[in-house]
Each structure stands twice: as structure tokens, then as C-alpha cells.
Amino acid sequence: MTKDIVSEIIDDHKIIRNLAQRYENENNTDERQKIANTVIREIAVHSACEEINLYPAFERHFTNGKEIADHSREEHLQVKKDLYKLDSMKVTDNGYHELFGKMLKELVHHIDEEESDFLPKFKETISQNELESLGASFAKTRVTAPTHPHPSAPDKPPAESLAGMTALPLDKTRDAVRDFVDTGRDKL
Ligand SMILES: [Fe+2]
Ligand SMILES: [Fe+2]
């Protein structure tokens, strides 16, 4: 069944919020590392999916779309910079937990803003058909999006899509030696 783009995004947000909660509650270091690896992957993929599918659609459909899209890309960039540092650290490293908390605070501010402001307005502005066709593209991008943060890569299509495809094989190689937890996506 095709989900509309807003449902796809809300699903991702739920998964990310849930993983963040699990990270906070977990005391076992190995398990915490697996959860952190999964958070990094889920945010990297989600950001790329929005930058490729949602923000260009904001620009097409909102009169102040460019302003909203640029503001959103800027917030993504800040999160990506922190994720990039976290990605090369271990959960047991000095400063990891503090940086993770900072990144999460920025991210929660960003996803709260999307859920309470931009997404409801977007849903009112465009047709159900288009919401569904964007949802299908969003789900498709999830398969080819880079799984690690690349803060210096382009954040607009088509350059971002191409850069993502180039980065993906290396990202997948890095993932092959990492452990992850189940995101629970199939239960949503
Ligand atoms: Fe976003
Ligand atoms: Fe989002």
C-alpha cells in the first residue's frame, strides 16, 4: 500500500524518537552502541529522503517555500555535523553522551517544527494524489540513500541523489561490520 509522504515522514520520526528513548534507557554499553549506530543510520537516511523529496516540494508549493526549505536544510546540516563526529566515536568515548544529547535536542526541535507546522500546512496545500506519489518516491529513496552522515555532500537534488549513490557502497561496507537493533518499522 502506498503511504503518503507525510505518513512516511511521521513513521521515520516515530522510529527515531523511539530509538532515542531506548538509547537513554539502556545501561549495557554494547547494546547502547548498537542503538546509537541505528540512530545514526536512520537519521542519515531520513534527512536524505526529505532533502530529495520534501524540501523541493516545499519550494514548488509554498509561496515562502525557499525560505522554509533553506531553514530546514540548515537545521539538517547542524545535526549532520554532530552525527559525523559521533559516527567516528564510540559510545564509551569522553564527550559522546553529551554530544549525542546536543544532537538529539537539535533534532527534536526540528522534527517538532515539521510535525506541528510545515507538514500539516503541506498536507492542506497539495492533492492526495501528489502526497501519495511523493510518498512512493520517499520510500524509494530510502533504499538508495546514504546510511552515514555526509555533511559536506550536496543537500539538493539531483546532485544529492548522485552523491548518495556514490557514497552508498562505502557506507554499506562500513555497516557490514557494525551491529544494529531492529527499528520496529514493520510493526508501524
Ligand atoms: Fe527534516
Ligand atoms: Fe523529518
From TrEMBL:
Coiled coil region boundaries: none
The cross-references to Pfam families, in alphabetical order and at most eight, read:
Hemerythrin (PF01814)
In terms of InterPro entries, this protein maps to: Hemerythrin-like
All residue ranges annotated as the Hemerythrin-like domain in the record? 5-121
Q: Give me the ranges of the annotated region Disordered.
A: 144-168
- Identify the domain of life: Eukaryota
**Gene3D superfamilies given in the database record:** nmb1532 protein domain like (1.20.120.520)
State what protein this is by name.
Hemerythrin-like domain-containing protein
* Organism expressing this protein natively: Rhizophagus irregularis (strain DAOM 197198w)
